[in-house]
Write a structure and sequence with these properties.
Layout lengths: L3 H11 L49 E2 L5 E2 L6 E6 L9 H5 L1 E3 L4 E3 L13 H17 L4 E4 L11 H10 L4 E8 L9 E5 L3 E2 L2 E2 L4 H19 L13 E4 L3 H4 L5 E8 L3 H7 L2 H19 L2
Parallel strand pairs: 3-6, 3-7, 7-12, 8-11
Antiparallel strand pairs: 1-2, 4-5, 8-12, 9-10
Amino acid sequence: MLTAAALASVCLTAGCGGAGDGGGSGPAQPRAGSSGAASSPSASGSASPSKSGPAADESSPAPAKSANGTRSGPLTGRTVVIDPGHNPRNHEHTREIGRQVDIGTTHKECDTTGTSTNSGYAEARFTLDVSHRLRALLQAQGAKVILTYDDDRPFGPCVDERARIGNNAKADAVVSVHADGSAAGNRGFHVILPARVRGGAADTSKIVDPSRDLGTRIAGLFVRATGSAPSNYVGGHTGLDTRSDLGGLNLSTVPKVFIECGNMRDPKDAALLTSAGWRQKAAQGIADGISSYLNG
């Protein structure tokens, strides 16, 4: 089993230190959180972090610009799609997000409300905040960054549309940002990789291997940036979990992973997830993993 230190060591020996660099478990406890069924409480009344990106003392240096004003850097010419899990207003549109959509092998809900901390900080607010920070870090390296949504629609998008956005962009990498909603005592992060799935509109055969590479690099560098350990309840302490039931992965034709940054229902993890400083570290770890993957 890979411990947190071993994950970081793997990245060091495999060259995971990209630009800006600073197996199986038993059945997981049922989750009412981000990638599974909807959970309460709703996002209403939750703390709403700033959407303006990193604080001044956490911001990345301004990227260099070419003669025509476009940004340049080690990720120039690369496209990254960031998929902030859920939508802060999904709870107001339960009928719309409850409709079934085709994920290739079966049908699932369009989207869910996501989870929240016990104090009411919604996963959907967390994912938007981390995604904004992540976007700034990647843009500073010259990447073209697309968000599947940016708090600009009343609900969704549905999981099949989230996959299409990455596919249509011909993204070099897609990362879906989440936080889990498991039982107290379950701690740590894990990266979800696509299983080899073929059925209907789903065929992940071409993305399984590159997605594993992307996910492994993110896991190792997330450890280094945040100090968080891999999940103690999913993935056998490897920080990696493979699933075949997520439409966002099944329908993707480009390398894609999900990251559950921690468990919002555990008080110790919740203290991290609600910290702006830790969220910046989380964004840095994900950005470092993406950079490492794209830079080979």
